[in-house]
Specification:
The chain has 174 residues and is mainly beta. 0% of the residues lie in helices and 33% in strands. It has no helices and 16 strands. The strands form 6 sheets. It has a 5-stranded antiparallel sheet, with no helix packed on it. The chain has a 3-stranded antiparallel sheet with strand order 7-15-11, with no helix packed on it.
Length: 174
């Protein structure tokens, strides 16, 4: 008898500043997962999500149809980041969203062990820096997130000082 298992090994990010625009080969960034996963990396079509000034390729749920699947709980996940050399890390993302207000939405989470995931930031509380969360989201068990309609691509920035000095941090957009 033979058992086969595919193991994917992603490198740890140690060089900063780090940027990923998804416009060329994505060598070691996001991987999609979760239940009912509808995340796709590609060029969105239709009227849901126009091109961004940074580029055309993006991670989008149901890339060509918009929306998401019923009862979906999925994410795109980063490789591991080593923040031992950083004093005040922060994250900046270009985002666009169109979700049923307070029922559906997305947020950013982090983990130090791939088991326990924690939402980064809350609605309207310092140190939220720019466009960070719009409301609580029922589909995220009442956690804070982006919900409603952003209208266009926007820049969202969040302070990550609570992760400074941490040797192994992953992120995921849920």
């Amino acid at each position: 008898n033979t058992v086969a298992k595919l193991i994917t090994s992603l490198p740890t990010i140690t060089d900063y500043p780090y940027s990923e625009y998804f416009q060329g080969p994505v060598e070691h960034w996001w991987t999609a997962g979760g239940s009912g996963n509808s995340w796709d990396l590609g060029v969105p079509t239709g009227t849901y999500f126009p091109s961004d000034s940074v580029g055309d390729i993006a991670w989008i749920t149901r890339l060509n149809n918009g929306g998401h699947y019923d009862n979906e709980y999925s994410w795109v996940e980063s490789p591991t980041f080593d923040f031992t050399s950083l004093i005040q890390p922060l994250i900046t993302m270009r985002i666009i969203y169109d979700a049923e207000t307070t029922s559906d939405g997305a947020n950013l989470q982090y983990s130090e062990n791939d088991v326990d995931w924690y939402t980064i930031g809350v609605v309207g509380v310092f140190p939220n820096l720019e466009n960070w969360y719009t409301n609580t989201v029922d589909g995220l068990a009442g956690e804070a997130g982006w919900t409603g309609n952003s209208g266009s691509w926007i820049t969202a920035t969040q302070d990550l000082t609570m992760l400074s000095g941490k040797p192994a941090v992953k992120f995921r957009v849920v």
